[in-house]
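Students often ask what a holo structure prediction actually looks like on paper. The answer is less mysterious than it sounds. You provide the chain, you provide the ligand, and the output is a string of discrete structure tokens encoding the 3D arrangement of the protein together with 5-O-phosphono-beta-D-ribofuranosylamine.
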Amino acid sequence: MTIEIKPLKKKIAILISGTGTNMEAIIKDSNTNNYSGIIKFVLSNNPDALGIIKAKTLGIKTFVFPVDKNNSLEIFEKRVLKLLKKEKIELLCLAGFMKILSKSFIQNYKGIILNIHPSILPSIKGLNTHKRVLEKDIKIHGATVHIVTPELDSGKILGQVTINILKNDTPKKLAKKLIKKEHQLYTKVIRNVIKGNNTIIQEN
Ligand code: GRF
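The corresponding structure tokens follow.
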């Protein structure tokens, strides 16, 4: 009897709160050739997250741990940490996850946490980045994939993509232009991370 030894794949989980288009791109990429990871599950704090339906359609296991008046973020984090441990998740990707993870969660999780943020960090941390970039006199916007550390939107940058801001751009138009680039950037960075490739991606 011959035993076929296949390469071991890094176990990945994705946290979302909403639409989940980045999540969808990551799952689809994981189904293509030479992918050295496996998406074990998608988890949301939001029971109404559209991304949960998308993940199910794509055949991925899903979990919803609500954060509401009966369930604090602390309870949520405990449940998530337990699941990450049980499933031996090595890479946790935040993709439109709208809660700020606590210092204790980040320090207790032994794998890598990545996030995609819609600005050229370190510029414009936090929310409403498309609106805020238009209020500044700058002509370039973009997105960043970075390692999550206890300080918000400040961990090591692993990849960035830029877009030009045009005269008639609105927050909505910028978001629409950027999201497709985000998908390309995030999937490429994840491929690098699971292969142990330290190259920093810079795209236009
Ligand atoms: C993206 O713009 C991402 O950069 C930000 O939240 C948005 C999520 O979009 N963190 P989606 O849920 O992936 O469609």
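Residues 171-195 form the longest helix (25 residues).
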